[in-house]
Amino acid sequence: MAGRTDFLASRRAVLGLAAGGLATAAALRRADAARTATKARIVIVGAGAAGTAMANRLVERLDGATITLVDGRAEHWYQPGLSLVAAGLRPASYTVSKTTDWLPQGVTLVPEAAAAIDPVAKTVATTSGKRLPYDFLIVAPGLVLDYAAIEGFSLDLIGRGGIGSLYAGPDYAAKTWAVASAFADKGGKGLFTRPATEMKCAGAPLKHTFLIEDIAGRSAGKGRYEITYAAHNDALFSVPIVSEKVRMLFQERGIKTVYSHVLKSVDPGRRIATFATPKGDQQMEYDYLHVIPPQRAPEVIRQSGLSWGDRWKDQGWVEVDQKTLRHRRFPEVFAIGDVAGVPKGKTAASVKWQVPVVEDHLVATIEGRQSSAAYDGYTSCPLITRVGRAMLVEFDYNNNLTPSFPGVIAPLEELWISWLMKEVALKATYNAMLRGRA
Ligand SMILES: Cc1cc2nc3c(=O)[nH]c(=O)nc-3n(C[C@H](O)[C@H](O)[C@H](O)COP(=O)(O)OP(=O)(O)OC[C@H]3O[C@@H](n4cnc5c(N)ncnc54)[C@H](O)[C@@H]3O)c2cc1C
User: Fold this and answer.
1) Ligand 1, residues 56, 78, 200: which to mutate, most atoms within 8 A of Cβ?
2) Residue 71: phi, psi to the nearest 5?
């Protein structure tokens, strides 16, 4: 297992890879290593960021394994790009590719959803009734957006009557921009929400707020709009120092904040959003409303017996050890990406650090050795604050800031270089990760 120093060196190498297409030292080391002979049957549920990266790495490490990916979605979505689409900075097509574009030789894709997982019988059943027995299972189906939990809301409202929701996918992110830009031109009351559940990229609700305020400031002009951010608890971000920095920036920019406000229902006809608060339901008017719904593990996971019993009861994240990402009751099962029940890490940046850890534990088990690889909770968020400015916030399970470029990129400063990381370098790095090369 690479130590912390190797991790940092490799993280820096990622920037080189993004800029110049160079292979990382880690990738070169893996190419040189002998492949392990095995007849293991490995099933990966989900061919998104985590499942695809995992498949690409395992084909390079194993010789003779049967690797099966299960995913019914033909499109791969580069989700970090959705924030740019919803601010008119990229077209929806920027975020869409084909799932099969990223798959290596030697992996079989079953183009169906997993319908049931039986961790005792060690099988996955697909929607058409195929039964896939496994020796190792990698659970990577991401999460589901529970729009039904918001009374009065339905996906067809996105892009009409001042309602946006960039999380719903590329086309919905483009529709979100249509209504957000109308608000930015005309002004009025903008209301920005986030759910009370765990969520992917907890920085994204803040980025959308900052970006639309920036654009409105130049279009409608200051004084013609009022923006309110509704935080689900008493903080703006889970890392206190980042939360305080965002609070100061919101104050400077005239963005109002209401705390402990969780969106409960929408009345699109009257343009009123109702929030559950400690003081009871509160209604707020809007001209533009950005909705991010509660997020949970997919139903197939919640029904599988793989979820935590006592934590995140309403959300169903998979019960894994937070360092090894191995299931605590079924040792041949691992969870990576958004579905993993760990305290932090629902980002693609986390996936990048989780996948090599799981790869090492899985291969070690096949080889009959112990692995000491451990995921430290690393996650990162290029927190866009304006068009052309971002803060590159990186942290771990303990809320320690873990800058990859100390002395070069200050984490809490709004910098053009951090914006470039999000706007240009991140996609190249993400693509390299999908190919198992970063
Ligand atoms: C608006 C937004 C902005 C973001 N910004 C950033 C950012 O700036 N930086 C960053 O690092 N991360 C960002 N993220 C988060 C990042 O995209 C996710 O954390 C990452 O994609 C998680 O990877 P995953 O493989 O777990 O899930 P996904 O990439 O979502 O893939 C899950 C896959 O599983 C499949 N699936 C679902 N159910 C089943 C089933 N039953 N059977 C089989 N397959 C199934 C899906 O079809 C999908 O292909 C952002 C996300 C959003 C929404």
Assistant:
1) 200
2) -165, 125
